[in-house]
Amino acid sequence: DHTSRLLHWIIPGLGLVTLGIALHFSNAIPLNKQLYTFSYVCVTAGAAALVLAAFYVLVDVFKFGYPFLPLQWVGMNAMLVYVMAAEGIFPGFVNGWYYGEPGSTLVNWIQDHVFVDVWHSRKVGILLYVIFGEILFWAVVSGILHRLAIYWKL
């Protein structure tokens, strides 16, 4: 049932987050993404379990799945999104076309003029670019491919 599933995700998730944060603040093992330290792995794995539990409650318990359809589409073409976006193939292709000088690419122009200049903050602009320029873009591409019944799979 729903309760036992949620307990299997929430209890270990909270335990891992607590362990990772305790290791970090006790100076035993600091959080360090570049080294993938044990504390970093605990925090990210625990957070993933908690996010999974939250999505489960929203989609399967409360039947609030329609807003999460783009995530379902991305999941159906996860290999495409990973290869093209996470491995940098598509951004590398787009950045290969520049104007004026090599640093003047379409991606940099979009980041600077559409997101950073509007919010007057580099950090907020880059965050919004990742949310809307990357994640939303690949959700739309995945949705179109889902509509056409095209899926990348092994």
UniProtKB/TrEMBL annotation:
The keyword Transferase does not apply. This is Heparan-alpha-glucosaminide N-acetyltransferase catalytic domain-containing protein. The keyword Zinc does not apply. The chain crosses the membrane at residues 6-25, 37-59, 79-99, 126-152. It comes from Genlisea aurea. Keywords: Membrane, Transmembrane, Transmembrane helix.
